[in-house]
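Duplicate of #3305? Posting structure anyway:
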């Protein structure tokens, strides 16, 4: 049937009707809130390029968790920034690492709170690459062995979810077997399965102090021009044991997100990355856009494209507003 019998504007007449036929909704349980942790005490350093986001120490972060817990955010993704970096990132699997301490502290206060730990090495290495480096090349298999130690260390501290993010071949299989061998069969793996070599990570690298000291990450993260490869990467990670898969970044990769969701019957996460956050904040600061409307439209587009879970720096401020407007 076509016009004049069909008039699509009938269902756009007012806000109540639009809400009634709305297909996509955001809720707080969609969100995972990223948090940056430094060793020490009394730290709450604002990240200059990410207004509203801070680095916390192991004590101040608990106040932050109390606050977001009360606001209705029940899931975080932790990133650690050690004082002591070395060539392989060994602080990542230290029993006394700042992430390990915080995981244990959160889980002892809030046993049901979902704690995910990013498992990578760029924050932990002096060279800022995501594993073992030799002659400028990131070595795959030696990195896997370290990744197993890191994953087991987070699981033994009490992490519910381990999230390998280095785009190392075989990383999910290595993490799964490492966890299983150590008795952590129930630890969830959230794999950064389709992660692109993206300039949208710029502000994160300030927050996590993890910029590569030389070269770039193009030999391990994906080429932004490819989408078939995203499906191959994701299929491999599922075969290796991923429980949740991910597309990252989100907004420039909504086509990939949609294909991944349609190809696999799996929970899919999308990472609304630092650059996506900071661009909204900066443009709003200049008065060029309406911040909340652009933010909400971006997040709903990520959900509409197929994300079940959205990792976003906006989670706390949205929760604070008390209403989800979309
Ligand atoms: C790697 C990691 C990165 C991000 C999450 N995990 C940075 C990178 O790959 O360079 C980026 C997240 C963001 O930009 O918000 N540990």
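Output from current build:
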């Amino acid at each position: 049937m076509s016009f004049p019998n069909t008039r699509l504007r009938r269902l756009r007449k007012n806000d109540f009707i639009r809400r009634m036929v709305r297909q996509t909704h955001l809720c707080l349980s969609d969100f995972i809130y990223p948090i940056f942790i430094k060793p020490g005490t009394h730290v709450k350093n604002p990240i200059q390029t990410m207004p509203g986001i801070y680095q916390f120490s192991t004590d101040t972060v608990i106040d932050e968790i109390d606050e977001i817990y009360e606001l209705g955010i029940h899931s975080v993704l932790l990133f650690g920034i050690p004082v002591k970096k070395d060539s392989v990132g060994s602080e990542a699997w230290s029993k006394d690492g700042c992430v390990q301490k915080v995981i244990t502290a959160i889980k002892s206060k809030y046993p049901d709170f979902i704690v995910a730990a990013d498992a990578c090495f760029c924050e932990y290495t002096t060279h800022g690459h995501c594993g073992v480096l030799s002659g400028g090349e990131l070595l795959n298999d030696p990195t896997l062995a370290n990744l197993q130690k890191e994953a087991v260390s987070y699981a033994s501290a009490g992490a519910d979810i381990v999230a390998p993010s280095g785009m190392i071949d075989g990383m999910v299989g290595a993490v799964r077997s490492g966890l299983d061998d150590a008795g952590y069969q129930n630890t969830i793996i959230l794999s950064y399965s389709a992660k692109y070599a993206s300039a949208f990570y710029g502000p994160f690298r300030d927050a996590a102090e993890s910029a590569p000291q030389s070269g770039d990450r193009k030999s391990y993260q994906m080429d932004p021009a490819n989408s078939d490869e995203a499906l191959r990467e994701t299929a491999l990670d599922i075969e290796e044991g991923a429980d949740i898969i991910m597309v990252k970044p989100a907004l420039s990769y909504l086509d990939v997100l949609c294909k991944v969701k349609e190809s696999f019957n799996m929970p899919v996460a999308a990472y609304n990355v630092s650059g996506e956050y900071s661009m909204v904040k900066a443009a709003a600061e200049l008065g060029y856009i309406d911040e909340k409307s652009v933010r909400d439209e971006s997040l709903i587009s990520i959900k509409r494209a197929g994300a079940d879970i959205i990792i976003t720096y906006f989670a706390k401020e949205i929760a604070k507003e008390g209403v989800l407007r979309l």
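Confirmed duplicate; merging threads. The chain has a mean pLDDT of 96. Residues 247 and 284 are 26 Å apart (CA to CA).
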